[in-house]
Amino acid sequence: MLLTLVYRSHVSEHVQSASLEGLVAQASIKNEISGITGILLFDGTHFFQLLEGPEDAVDALYSTICRDRRHHNVVELMRDYAPSRRFGNVGMELFDLRKHHEDVVLQAVLDKGTSKYRLTYDDRALQFLCTFVQAREKENYLEILPSGSWSFIADEALKPEVEFIFPEMQDYSFAFQPIVDPLSKEIVSYEATLRGPDGGSPMGYFSQLSRTTIYEADLKSKKLAFALANKMGISNKTLCIKLLPMTLVMVPDAVEFLVQEITANGLVPEQIVVAITENGVITREDKFTAAMKQLKASGMRLAIDDFGAGSAGLLLLTQCQPDKIMIDRNIICDVHTSGPKQAVVQAIIRFCSSLEVSVIATGVEKPEEWMWLDAAGICNFQGELFATPRLNGAPVVAWPEVKQEYQLRDQTL
Description:
By secondary structure, the protein is of the alpha/beta class. It has helices spanning 20-34, 55-67, 102-111, 116-121, 124-133, 202-206, 214-220, 222-232, 247-250, 254-264, 285-297, 313-320, 329-332, 339-355, 367-376, 404-412; strands spanning 2-11, 37-42, 46-54, 71-81, 91-96, 150-154, 173-181, 186-195, 238-243, 272-277, 301-307, 324-327, 358-361, 380-381, 390-391, 398-402. The chain folds into two domains: 2-140, 2-Layer Sandwich (Alpha-Beta Plaits); 147-412, TIM Barrel (Alpha-Beta Barrel), CATH 3.20.20.450. This is EAL domain-containing protein.
């Protein structure tokens, strides 16, 4: 299968421009053997390369490219398949944008096209190339430090307390995970996620219940979440609880029950954020809308969880007017290497900024993910990079500290 792969990267400081021609000459020989076409653009700071050829060969080459220390911040922009080559000749060709006018470069690339109609009018690969040559997206080139530039230090002041015991724990428990502002070293909220008594998944717990009792069990379980939050002493922090979207519709007086249990456990409704999942099925939209109004009128706030995982996120955003959205972990995973994911996250940030909706990145596990998201404008994060969920209590948080040898470089990026 014929694959076209496009990526962008940042040249490493030790690489001399004069060495690029030798690099390209070697790459051209290897590409010809593998049946790969390579078009490499360089603007003095960034590389842009289009690779085209058999899928296995291109993937193998790209894997090698990602490990090459002559560049960093490698971002895959496009992966596309076609019945025939966009560019007919195998090998490698370098276009140094510092030496040629953009029109000359674009025409030279067009002249190498196998199908000039596709390349001239609506070809995505060419559009990426034009955007790079014309420097139309440079403000979105977010540069980050290497993953090894940070240490993550456990906060000794946040040692876990003795695990609390409540009667309800024989049926279910809650895992607590903080939402943090890493650079301020501040816990802004705790999220309480329903689990089985031994820490199993929520679906494992719900699977034991009849269909008619799931929603009531979902609601009533939050009594334990509030009790645990009270024992933990969350002070003025918020507590995020997850509800199935239809729980507020199917259980009579659900909001009143939540307010009663919040107050009974020494909390106030303004501390509680109710997160509904985007991929949950919502019917009876009129009753759901009324429940959302009642929820907000009580003082509680609303979040959309797993944003981007389902098909209803944008519609929910317009219907519910949430206070927060929590971007789905599958979008966050390896966002620092994926052009499509970066574009989605940047779009989310832009429209949430317009609506004054706070954005939380969930499932952050790698320093590079956090660094890119922070550079993009997100301040609040949740994930095992900072704290592993803990059953029935608050976990220890690890705060980032930049290593001394990278402090100066960090100031220049």
